[in-house]
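Weekly structure sync, notes
Attendees: PL (lead), two postdocs, one rotation student
Agenda item 3: pending single-chain targets
PL asked that the sequence for the first pending target be pasted directly into the notes so everyone works from the same version. It is reproduced below exactly as submitted, 333 residues in total.
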Amino acid sequence: MTRLVPAEWAAQKALWTCWPSAADLWEDSLAPARAEVGGLVRLIAAGQPVKVLAHGSEAVASARASLPATVEVIEAAFGDIWLRDTGPIFARAGADGAPVALRFRFNGWGGKYDLAGDDTVGDHVARLSGAPVLAHDFVLEGGAVDHDGDGTVLTTRQCLLNPNRNPHWTGEADAEAALQLAFGARKVLWLGDGLLNDHTDGHVDNIARFIAPGVVACMEPAGPDDPNAGVLEAIAADLAAMTDAAGRRLEVVRIPSPGLVPDEDGEPVPASHMNFIIANQVVVMPHYGTPTADEALRRLAVRFPGRRVHGVRSDAILTGGGSFHCITQQEPA
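Predicted structure, written out during the meeting:
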């Protein structure tokens, strides 16, 4: 059966996301995280349907009180809000391109976080969407792969070949065979490591993203104190030497990194301007109030002339380990 995951810039039927719900996980960041998710949802909902999962009656009431009436709030069980990784990946299958929901095993990012509901919320979303489920018996998070809509998959060795996911894979060939079966991948492009202190073990949606056919965005160091300077330069060099499934030499677009964003102990956190969302009418880029934010937004906006490009603070969401792309999943039209 032929498979294709549409590019994120293709028309979307809906965007799915989650409302921060677990007070014991978010603690003092719960209200600020809800405010940030609310800002994101309002921007996207102005141009397309948005469906928001909320866990528990308090969270459902909070979401409904905070979001526009056009946003569908759905009570659903989940561990935390990282739906890019726990939800289905929507694709097209067969000669008629019928929608399907691809499901994979989820093991808490290599056994780091085992939260009730995270391994089942993807099936729930698939049922709500009406798309039939095609299940695959290997571990994969949606943030570990990026798609150009033409059969090219971008990923990292640090994550996909990590023995804490699929220890039976002996190398790139095993992973590529699995991606070909699941996604119809015609070519897999391999990067090395992701950001420092990223508990996802180097998800690609934090470091490099397809933004148009043959075009990939990645970050450039914000300055000499950028904790990821060496990794960011290696990513750009690797991408510049690659071709996609259609044989195009990749055009590499550099976006400034946020630079050093420390946690309360002074340790760098994996803040990224790459964790943006491409929706039907807007692109929403997370930022953290660093000096490079305005320039990052300007460079990104140049690449999306048909969409309004917005920057929204994501400091509170980042305390949970990710940002806007991590908490969303698009359903193609």
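Discussion points:
- The chain has a mean pLDDT of 97.
- The chain has one domain: 3-332.
Action: rotation student to compare against the earlier draft before next sync.
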